[in-house]
Amino acid sequence: MWFCATLAASTAQAxxxxxxxxxxxxxxxxxxxxxxxxDEAVANRGLAEAFARIAALDRMMSDYREDSELSQLGRxxxxxxxxxxxxxxxxxxxxxxxxxxxxxxxASAGAFDVSVGxxxxxxxxARRRHELPHEEQIQQALGSVGYQYIDIDRAQQTxxxxxxxxxxxxxxxxKGYASDQALAVLKQHGIDRASVNxxxxxxxxERPPGQEGWKVAISQGGERTAPSKxxxxxxxxxxxxxxxxxxxxxxxxxxSHIVDPRTGWALTESRMATVISPSGMMAxxxxxAACVLGPDEGLSLVAQxxxxxALIGSRGSEDETSWRTASSPSFPVLEATPSQxxxxxxxxxxxxxxxPCRGGQEEEQ
Length: 365
Description:
This protein is α+β, with helices and mostly antiparallel strands and 365 residues long. It has a domain at 69-161: ApbE-like superfamily (T-fold). The chain has eight helices and 18 strands. Helix 3 (92-107) packs parallel to helix 7 (280-293) and helix 6 packs antiparallel against helix 7.
């Protein structure tokens, strides 16, 4: 569903605070920014520049755009074995994401892999045509996947793609990175109390005035209804990856939009992972990887990254009734939603375009 960009301005309960909220379409989803500032003119400038930063990153990192830096980098990969490879100088943004992605790829033994592009394209076509890929197609695409074949030279700021027809897909990390960057732009304008929600990948600044933290809804069992549990957070990133709303049934079997880069196949076990990390980028990528790994291995992965914690659930492909949930010892205690007060805002029940800060399932590994 597409929503028009709108703007709401109100005076926060705390004196002298201006509250601005806005939603715009970027990166294939709806990006929502909510902020509190002492000056409305400064707030509007910060808001405009934050969205401009997200739009610029979208143009840079979209694998749907042939002219994006990411697509151009992909075309530097050799077209066949034995062809020479070229080191390509990349922007600081692309380099930063590739460095972070490499760390998570290695820690997860390839459960997270931004070289998954050939598989992403294959499964997008499968969902569009409602045709299950053949094993031969899967194996052919797998032959062009492998984070080990991405050479990163941080000193020279270059990247070399060594595997034939390797293509990059930042779908499981870029939204979190964009949220972080938008939050950084707001801080440059002196706006510390803000949240950026890019399709469910959130970057959170200082808490709203008079509140304990940003109220973030947590889904515990892949339910389609509004979540009934919440946490309050500040100065962190949080993301949810899952397939409650994004899956397809092919030949009588349910396939997730999330692809396991190690096997080439879309997940058939329904899973959902919520990760809290120091940054939105880290939360986004770890949530994607945790979905691929499942509860036990997913929690082990998240534990390797300081300041990160997770809640992971899964349901077997044959059993649609049982839902197993596991969480890190440090995951926050969930609050039950109280009866709605007059100022409680819920998606579809308020004139505000901002939904509760809820993890979404927009990313595609």
